[in-house]
Each structure stands twice: as structure tokens, then as C-alpha cells.
Amino acid sequence: MNAIGKNIHTLRKQNGFTQEELACKLGVTYQAVSKWENCTTAPDISLLPELATVFGTSIDALLGYAAEKKTSAYYEERYKDTEYYWGVKPSFMCLEVLRILPPEKPLRVLDAGCGEGKDAVFFAKNGYKVSAFDITGSGIEKAKRLAERHGVDIDFFRADILDYRLEKKFDVIFCSGVLHYLPEEQRGEVLENWKRHTADSGVNALNVFVEKPFIQNPPDHEPGHFPSWHSGELFGHYHDWRFERCEEVIFDCNSSGVPHKHCMDTLIAVKETAL
Ligand SMILES: C[S@@+](CC[C@H](N)C(=O)[O-])C[C@H]1O[C@@H](n2cnc3c(N)ncnc32)[C@H](O)[C@@H]1O
Fold first, then answer.
1. Residue 158 sits in which domain range?
2. Among 15, 185, 37, 190, which residue's Cα sits nearest to residue 113?
3. 16 and 112 share one domain
4. Threshold 0.85, pTM exceeds
5. Labelling 164: which of 51, 68, 174, 198 has CA 20 to 30 A away?
6. How many domains is the chain built from?
């Protein structure tokens, strides 16, 4: 899906319109709406103001610019510092992947939302062939410097998890601290795309913040942070894979100087082929 087709689909669902209802409001056929959402065609530019009004949004948001600016601005600034905001120590999930699927043959890893690149660099240093993306330019620049410092070659690029879809397969898809940016209606589609583009016996290693009725939103609740996932929701998307690690942990956090708690679901799952 291109950005506008995907956004029309998402906004139509969010507003509770059928394709027929939206078509009627705009004076077009429902087939036209269906074609926009399937990306066979795009709406005429003269329809954009009316589309934005019907959805109660801006033309920028319709074209996919607003969300990108919001999320990138938050980390874009934080990554400008010379210090590594997330440190340079890899996540424990990297060690788990190394244990489950060691690179005894050439294996491709994708790190989605790689931030400043600490996990991508870990994988590359251990012999994996790594691609990694983030929405921020400053994060990607810093990640490239980290890779250079460690003498590893990584395919870093800028992309938005909301509209970037895989077209080739990876042995490992790794995503840490990012899935909470996915709005509910896009979660199934993105994870299906990742599952389909995971090689047989490949691994997906993912984590996500989840809602608990007894845990309040953090005091430094960040803009562009979509409502949290339900506890266990991530695991359900992978019901047909083998679970190597499936856990929910509540932990203390002191970001912003105010003590609070987070709850996180972690899943490391293997794509088994049928016997
Ligand atoms: C909590 S940090 C985690 C970074 C990295 N995975 C790590 O563990 O060090 C969240 C990252 O998600 C990135 N991000 C936020 N929204 C994104 C989006 N829509 N597409 C891609 N990356 C995004 C941010 O720029 C940030 O680097």
C-alpha cells in the first residue's frame, strides 16, 4: 500500500465509515474508494481537502507526513547528543537470537526501529548480514558511525514502520521498543508481512509495552505514542509459530525523574515448517 491508500483505509475504519458511505460523502463510486485503498489508483488532488474534512484531519496527515514528523521529532533531538541515548550494550534478546539461530551459514537480520544501532552492530559483529531502519535521520547517522567504529558493514536506511513493507525474506526480524507506535488497525497487517517474509526456521524477536489496568501512563508519555497493546496481544499474532520465549514483565522506570512502572511483553518465536 502507498501512504495515501493506507491512510484512507485507516482513517475510514477509524471514523466507522463503509466504503459506500465514504464514496457517498465524496460523490464518487465505492469502486473508486476500493481502488484507492488497494493502491490501484490515487484520489484526484482536488478531492484531498474534502477527504481531510470528512476524516477531521489535515492534508498532511492524509499524505502521511504528520505522524512521521511527530515521532521523528521526539527521538530526532535526543539522538543529536554525542552520548548514546540507549547505550551501546545489546538487548538480551540479541543473545537469545544468537543462541537459537547462530550464524553457521549466512543469515540475514532486519532490525526494525534500530535507534542508534546498538543491536544491529551486535548482530553484524557476530557474523550476521544486517539491514536496519529507523524513522530518525540522526539515529541512522549515529548508527552508521557506531558500525564504522566496530568495522562492520550494515545496510542502514530511513523508513517508517507504518508504511514500510518487506519484499524479501529475512532469517531474523528483530524489533525492540518500537511496536507501540503501530496503531491497532495496522498491527495485524505489519506482523503478517513480517511473518510471511521470515525464512523457514527463521526467528522473530519482538517486544512491546502493554496496558495493565493497575499501571498508569508514564509521566513523560510521549507524543505519537499510540494506545498500548493488550496484554498477550502480541503472542496471539504468532499462535502458529513455536515460542522460544514468551513472557510478560513489570519493571520500574525513573525516566523524567518520577518513579513509575511499565509492563512489557517479549516474544521470541520460530517459524516452523509443517512436518
Ligand atoms: C525505544 S527506541 C528503541 C530503539 C532501539 N530499537 C533500541 O532498542 O535501542 C524506539 C525507536 O523507534 C523509532 N521509531 C519511532 N517511530 C517509528 C516509526 N514509525 N518507524 C520506524 N521507527 C520508529 C524511534 O526513532 C526510536 O529509535
1. 78-270
2. 190
3. no
4. no
5. 51
6. 2
